């Protein structure tokens, strides 16, 4: 059995600095510069074939000439083999990596505006090896100071990558001040900000914070790169993902972000009902029970306004808002970050996909069940000065939805149709350690 992966890749080091790689030397279709610029090469039509020798000549000059100027560095072809045999001693990874880079997004999801809300930056597209490295990092307790806690300790796959406890336990037994968040479809939060209070401007920033957090993992990034470099498997995984070079905290951030963004979930009962459709969901959802249908209708009705905040076919928000949990918040969320009282009590509006798995609910895990959540919206909305207008009556008072027990049960039944059972065990997102 051949335990080697081949990289068909040329690295070009230009003297003026904008280095680039060419994927698949034999069939060049595009050149990706490290600053994100993508140079598309047009297919050559047969009537232009007479220009082919000139084109090849031009490309040769482009590729070989600058590389020759730098023949003391790594500017030559890297069609190399990476010996991956050591990986199988520690990790149960497939010989060909799982597909993370090109997961098909079904039509009912790929419609705008969902697809436009993809927060993947041009500088960090998901690759199969990058996300594979991210997966290993995500499950590795070595990321904590005393090797006890991994990302997955607080983001458990079977609970939609959240924690069934209201607060999570960190590396020295301390508890987090907020409830852990589910990670599926985090990629589609439009403003691309992360955490309940949206304090991380990008996912690339976010993923390094729990590692250094003094309650969560307590690690210095410099110590972490040294620790990873001393293992047998990380140097191989980083090489597969990023080519030659040191293990850096930037690469850790890129890989973890790729893995988190790869966690998408499109196979709930709701998705199965909408499969193949485009545009807004039909009024009558095929295969729904009368109760689920009633819940769907209520969710999208002006009585509740749920879908005005938890919008699109991913039931996801666009920016932090105040949903009237308290008159005075113990934790002011976004307000703590900006210092602006107008932001007090505003929190990220998470996707409700897999919400039946991610309880307890809200930033402090105050509600144990989905019924508790609906009861809050029905009759418990607090008149906070920043309460969002979508939860107010025209008079400005908090909404009272006048839902009866049957309506509440129906809304819960609808939320339960958003669970993707396959996600709980999907191997590509699971613990790879032996
Ligand atoms: C000790 C528990 C704990 C550990 C370990 C932990 N997290 Fe978290 N995670 C949380 C909590 C709690 C929050 C919410 C914190 C907040 O909003 O202030 C969170 C939030 C997040 C979010 C934000 C999701 C969103 O939609 O905004 C991401 C992404 C995330 N964690 C990824 C990770 C990664 C990657 C790791 C490992 C490097 C990790 N977490 C380690 C508890 C943990
Ligand atoms: C004004 C916007 C808004 C409206 C309308 C709204 N929500 Fe929310 N929802 C939020 C915000 C903000 C949060 C997070 C609040 C927090 O944690 O402090 C949230 C949280 C939730 C959660 C918990 C998610 C989790 O992972 O903990 C559920 C479930 C939920 N909403 C369901 C609903 C339902 C059902 C309706 C309609 C009855 C509704 N929401 C109406 C803004 C809204």
Brief digest:
With 434 residues, this protein is mainly α. It has helices at 52-68, 87-90, 107-110, 128-138, 151-154, 203-206, 208-212, 221-229, 234-242, 249-262, 269-274, 290-299, 306-309, 334-338, 370-379, 405-416, and strands spanning 4-6, 9-12, 20-23, 30-33, 38-40, 81-83. The strands form 2 sheets. It has a 4-stranded antiparallel sheet with strand order 2-3-4-5, with helices on one face.
List the helices and strands and how they pair.
Layout: E1 4-6, E2 9-12, E3 20-23, E4 30-33, E5 38-40, H1 52-68, E6 81-83, H2 87-90, H3 107-110, H4 128-138, H5 151-154, H6 203-206, H7 208-212, H8 221-229, H9 234-242, H10 249-262, H11 269-274, H12 290-299, H13 306-309, H14 334-338, H15 370-379, H16 405-416
Antiparallel strand pairs: 1-6, 2-3, 3-4, 4-5
Helix pairs in contact: 4-9, 4-10, 12-16, 15-16
The structure holds heme C (2 copies).
């Amino acid at each position: 059995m051949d335990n080697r992966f081949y990289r068909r890749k040329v690295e070009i080091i230009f003297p003026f600095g904008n280095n680039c790689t060419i994927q698949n030397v034999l069939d060049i279709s595009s050149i990706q510069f490290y600053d994100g610029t993508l140079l598309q090469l047009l297919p050559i039509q047969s009537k232009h074939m007479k220009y082919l020798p000139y084109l090849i000549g031009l490309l040769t000059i482009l590729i070989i000439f600058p590389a020759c100027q730098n023949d003391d560095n790594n500017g030559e072809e890297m069609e190399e083999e990476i010996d991956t045999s050591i990986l199988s001693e520690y990790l149960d990874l497939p010989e060909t990596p799982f597909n993370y880079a090109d997961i098909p997004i079904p039509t009912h999801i790929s419609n705008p505006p969902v697809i436009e809300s993809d927060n993947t930056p041009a500088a960090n597209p998901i690759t199969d090896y990058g996300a594979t490295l991210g997966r290993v990092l995500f499950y590795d307790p070595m990321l904590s100071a005393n090797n006890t806690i991994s990302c997955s300790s607080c983001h458990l796959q079977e609970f939609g990558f959240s924690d069934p406890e209201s607060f999570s336990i960190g590396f020295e037994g301390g508890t987090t001040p907020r409830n852990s968040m589910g990670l599926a479809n985090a990629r589609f939060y439009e403003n691309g900000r992360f955490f309940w209070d949206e304090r991380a401007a990008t996912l690339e920033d976010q993923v390094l914070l729990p590692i250094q957090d003094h309650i969560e993992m307590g690690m210095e990034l410099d110590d972490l790169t040294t620790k990873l470099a001393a293992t047998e498997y990380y140097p191989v995984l980083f090489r597969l993902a990023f080519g030659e070079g040191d293990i850096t905290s930037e690469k850790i951030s890129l890989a973890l972000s790729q893995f988190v963004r790869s966690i998408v979930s499109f196979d709930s009962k709701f998705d199965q009902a909408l499969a193949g459709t485009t545009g807004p969901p039909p009024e009558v959802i095929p295969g729904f029970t009368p109760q689920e249908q009633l819940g769907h209708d209520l969710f999208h009705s002006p009585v509740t306004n749920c879908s005005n905040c938890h919008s699109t076919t991913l039931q996801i928000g666009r920016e932090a808002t105040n949903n009237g949990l308290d008159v005075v918040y113990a934790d002011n969320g976004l307000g703590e970050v900006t210092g602006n009282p107008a932001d007090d009590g505003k929190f990220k509006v998470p996707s409700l996909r897999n919400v039946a798995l991610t309880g307890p609910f809200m930033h402090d895990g105050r509600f144990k069940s989905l019924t508790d959540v609906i009861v809050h919206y029905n009759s418990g909305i607090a008149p906070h000065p920043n309460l969002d207008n979508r939860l107010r009556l025209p008079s400005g008072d908090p909404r009272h939805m006048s839902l009866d027990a049957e309506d509440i049960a129906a809304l819960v039944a609808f939320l339960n149709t958003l669970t993707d059972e396959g996600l709980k065990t999907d191997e590509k997102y699971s613990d790879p350690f032996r």
